[in-house]
Specification:
Number of domains: 1
Strand content: over 45%
Number of strands: 25
CATH superfamily: Porin
Order of helices and strands: HHEEEEHEEEEHHEEEEEEEEEEEEEEEEE
Number of helices: 5
Structural class: mainly beta
CATH architecture: Beta Barrel
CATH topology: Porin
Largest sheet: 16 strands, antiparallel, barrel
Distance between the termini: 26 Å
């Protein structure tokens, strides 16, 4: 119950115009830090004098992200048999501080990012108070030679993982994405954009031995190799474009085992997709992306297929796909990040307020269908499809209030479990 008290001030800011206008004006006297001046993997940080530090040797951009979620789930009897009864829950989905900027004592400045999540509000007793999510350094090859990123970082593949979660159309990524891609990994990655930023590509090699409890040597721990390329065959502006992308991921098997699992696009829910651990030597994943934007309308399609080398399980193949879109009824649109090849930040044309020049902020409605099939040959990980509708309100570039309704069907263990999902989020981002 105490968690709901933190939702109340955010709600009051959004519905009390006389006071909210002053707060919103204070927050929105901002500029966006240029992509060349901050790590390409960092979300854009809205800059004021008090959250940007500059010296002759370095710059520091201070960013914050706070997500508070409330999730309520309705199940039929078969769903309860499959995954157990799921109770409503309030969750601090993110309590994150982000430090990013440049190191200026090199001829071509290096870039860095450090992001940590505070787990003290609702973490388990065994969780560290602060968990480092990103700790990486980006080293340039001249002015146009691209970047080498070293450290704990995103793997750079899969549009929904390249895209910061705070800027997505829906509260959570599609069900198959976390099963097939590791959200953060430790390694080294090269990235660059060419053809006047109409094309990006990245390649990396990863090994999370340092976070794997040192149970294995570096050589014995599984390696991952990734590649992604994107292009803009059509680009007139951020309001009229077509994006295409292709990605690849190779992963080895530690101790000769692999497993795939994922939640039903609700972080407080238990795992729905679960293959369990099974004998395997490696796996290869292919990823395809398509995005189209026309004014306030945007559409996205994504497909992933993994081929697992497992003689004992019959070399199964699993796949995931999604198709959806959104409409800003206020006429707004998201920006496109040409550095990393993804849809990005939404800044309303008119911030919420009653004074002349103000407006509703930005209002978005969206819908999508996702489908994950992790049952093949000797493996029954489940088949899960979910339809989601979304309504989002952005009073300004810092605040977002989101409501999602989803209906899902899980085919597993000779049962068809049906589930309704009600998800609500209050989000603050700096």
């Amino acid at each position: 119950m105490y968690k709901l008290l933190i939702l109340f001030p955010l709600f009051c800011l959004s519905v009390a115009p006389s006071r909210a206008q002053n707060v919103f004006e204070f927050l929105n006297d901002t500029t966006v830090v240029n992509a060349e001046d901050m790590p390409s993997a960092a979300p854009p940080i809205l800059e004021k004098k008090w959250n940007r530090i500059e010296s002759k040797l370095f710059t520091i951009n201070i960013g914050l992200a706070i997500f508070i979620d409330y999730n309520s789930i309705g199940q039929n009897d078969e769903s309860i048999q499959q995954v157990g009864e799921i109770k409503p829950e309030v969750e601090f989905r993110a309590d994150r501080i982000i430090l990013s900027g440049n190191l200026l004592f090199f001829k071509n400045p290096w870039r860095y990012m450090i992001a940590a999540n505070y787990n003290g509000l609702d973490g388990e007793d065994v969780d560290p108070t602060f968990a480092f999510i990103d700790v990486d350094l980006e080293i340039p090859f001249g002015k146009k030679g691209g970047w080498i990123t070293i450290g704990k970082q995103k793997e750079g593949i899969g549009h929904e993982y390249v895209l910061p979660g705070s800027q997505a159309m829906f509260t959570e990524r599609g069900s198959g994405t976390p099963a097939l891609i590791k959200q953060r990994n430790i390694g080294i990655r090269y990235s660059n954009s060419v053809l006047n930023h109409r094309m990006t590509w990245t390649a990396g090699i990863f090994n999370n031995w340092l976070e794997n409890g040192n149970q294995h040597s570096f050589a014995d721990n599984a390696m991952q190799v990734t590649f992604r390329a994107t292009g803009l065959p059509i680009y007139k502006s951020d309001r009229e474009l077509m994006h295409v992308g292709i990605g690849y991921r190779y992963t080895g098997a530690t101790d000769g085992k692999l497993s795939y699992k994922a939640k039903p696009e609700v972080n407080t829910a238990p795992v729905f997709i679960n293959t369990g651990s099974f004998d395997a030597s490696s796996a290869n994943t292919l990823m395809l992306e398509w995005i189209g934007v026309k004014g306030p309308f945007s559409f996205i399609g994504e497909y992933m297929n993994v081929w697992v080398n497992s003689a004992s399980a019959g070399n199964p193949a699993f796949h995931y796909g999604q198709f959806g879109g959104s409409w800003f009824i206020t006429g707004d649109n998201r920006k496109y990040n040409k550095q990393t090849g993804n849809m990005g930040k939404l800044t309303p044309k008119k911030n919420f307020g009653l004074k002349p020049g103000k407006g509703l902020g930005a209002v978005e409605i969206g819908a999508r269908y996702t489908y994950s099939d992790f049952t093949d040959r000797a493996i029954d990980g489940g088949k899960f499809g979910r339809f989601t509708g979304a309504l989002g309100w952005f009073p300004n570039a810092h605040l977002r209030f989101e409501a999602n309704y989803g209906h899902g069907k899980l085919d597993k263990n000779n049962l068809i479990g049906k589930t309704d999902f009600w998800q609500f989020r209050a989000q603050f981002e700096l």
